[in-house]
Amino acid sequence: MSILIAPSILSADFRRLQEEVDSVASADWLQADVMDGHFVPNLSFGAPVLKTLQTDLLLDVHLMVENPADRIAEFLAIGAKHLTFHAEAVEATDARRSLMEAIRKGGATAGIALNPATPIEAVEDVIEEVDLVLIMTVVPGFGGQAFIEDALEKVKAVRARFPRLMIQVDGGINANTARMSIDAGADNIVAGSFIFQSSDRKAAIASLRSR
Ligand code: DX5
């Protein structure tokens, strides 16, 4: 199982965002946490900001927004190659399916995210159709929060049922919690403050990969 590392730019220094993106070139994905101030109490950034960034990393857009279907076109237009929407924001199965179809038509893969309080049962309808499940290990909205270890039970349960499904974890990730997450079955690791608060980003990213 190869492990993908996705630095979250929410924790980057926005005064020099391109330099910050350049500093994590040894990662695999670049995660952009798009927050609308409604689905989560924070407001972050949108496509106009992301459009300015140059990177060879795969642009992963984590949509912490109330109406993700209204937002995907702008991110697909700037080259996002993976978009994750929240199960709590799109509850109807047909809406989830049409959203995934629209994302894929735009040339990206589609993921669904579960907040810590949301059980796996909430996505039983589409879990065999998504390209990725994002199991949040913090309550979404802010970087720098503490890792919620209980969320690893969900990682283990999903991995046991779906050996090939990509499982992403996000929130409170450092070298220790990354190892716990990988041991539980995660293969895509998002980290914000751990990477961007490190002076040696390459070493920080490498430390997340190691078992
Ligand atoms: C929280 C975001 C996370 C966050 C991760 O809502 O979805 O991606 O930026 O930041 P750290 O790694 O600092 O917890």
Would you give an account of this structure?
By secondary structure, this protein is of the alpha/beta class. It has a single domain, classed as Aldolase class I (TIM Barrel). 30% of the residues lie in helices and 20% in strands. The radius of gyration is 16 Å and the shape is globular. Residues 8, 10-11, 33, 62, 138, 140-145, 170-173, 190-194 line the site of D-xylitol-5-phosphate.
In a few lines, what is going on in this structure?
This protein has helices at residues 17-22, 47-50, 72-77, 93-105, 151-161, 175-184, 193-196, 201-209, and strands spanning 4-7, 29-35, 58-64, 82-86, 109-114, 132-136, 166-170, 188-191. The protein has 211 residues and is α/β, with parallel strands linked by helices.
Largest pleated sheet: 8 strands, parallel
- Rg computed from alpha carbons, rounded to a whole number of angstroms: 16 Å
Sum up the overall morphology in one term: globular
Any idea how many domains?
Answer: 1
Q: Could you estimate the helical fraction of the residues in percent?
A: 25-40%
CATH architecture: Alpha-Beta Barrel
Average pLDDT, to the nearest integer? Answer: 97
Could you state the CATH homologous superfamily?
Answer: Aldolase class I
Catalogue the unreliable spans.
none
CATH class: Alpha Beta
Order of helices and strands: EHEHEHEHEEHEHEHH
